[in-house]
Amino acid sequence: MNLTALTLLLTTIAAVTAVWRALPALARPTLPFGTAVPADRADEPVVAEARRTYARRVLVLGVAAAVLAMPLALFMNAEAAVAAATVALIAADTGAYLLAGGAIRKAKRDGGWYSGTRQAVTADLSFRTDPVRVPWPRLVPAAAVLAATAVVGLDRAGSLPDTLPGLGGLDLAGGERVPTGFWTAANPALGQAAVLLVTALALAAIVRARPDLDAARPEATARRYREYLRSLANLGFAVAACVNLTLAGIALRLWELVPPSIPVTAAIVAPLLLAAAAAIRFELRVGAGGHRLPALPGEADEDTGMVQRDDDRHWHLGGFVYINPDDPAFLVHQRVGGSQWTVNLGSPAGRITGLILAAIILSALAITALEALGISGA
Fold first, then answer.
1. CB atoms near residue 328 (< 10 Å)
2. C-alpha R_g of the chain
3. Could you tell me the pTM of the whole model?
């Protein structure tokens, strides 16, 4: 294993560990580890202990993954080693997350945390009659980057060499060269178009999805949720522009319009780092559903006497999966982490989507396993 491969392996393990370590802190206080609890139970000792135990387990798993992956990488190529270590670590961290959620659910059940409470759900019809508008003009930067990349690509198409670089290594100069063809040469621009389309469709669906409001404070949470959706839409388009900038840089390198070097690689990666920083800032200032936004005068006193209904029976795998045949919603706000969304696998459209996603995930895992064993279709 060379230094580049070792750096990539350890960096990936560190990134996965950091994300899973931060995941519980991104969720709303009333949804620790995907488990619904009343607001006055969010600071129970068992919840704090579950957080501490989970944090220790994630750190131990990260160290163990690094220690075990390095000798494993001696028997397989670097890319397969990174993929195998990542999949194994994510699976182990998921297990730690489920154990933490299980401990809280047991304490909630044994302690009767919802006993004597008035459970309810709330709806705000103004989200239908006066929905949050998607700021479509903010899609222009990402579209402009795509257009510029396409223009450069069309100009370069007639003079491309017979083979294109493999883009391996930190300087994007390693790896076997590949035959020039439409799909190989146009891949970055096609990726940009996909980013543009997926971002637009996802945001259009999200702003129309059912809002996640608190039955105890419906007015305050509705206001925060509106601000959350506006901020999320702005963030989504900004991230799309950053991703397209990185893909534009990859295109320039693939078409050999810029030389291979570490500074060029750094410039290509920089927009992604900027997007990550913007996403972190969003989660810290706005949070899932806008729960981190400051309250307006008088909002802190709002209390209907209700608590949000305990619907844990519809959530599975620690809040990653939602299955409710009686809920017509297709897209719902996920319980895990911050601003993630998932589909209702209990709805007909959700079941079809789930099957497609499962097929994609299983195919990716199979490819990773084959590469780890040194088996390929070539």
1. 10
2. 23
3. 0.86
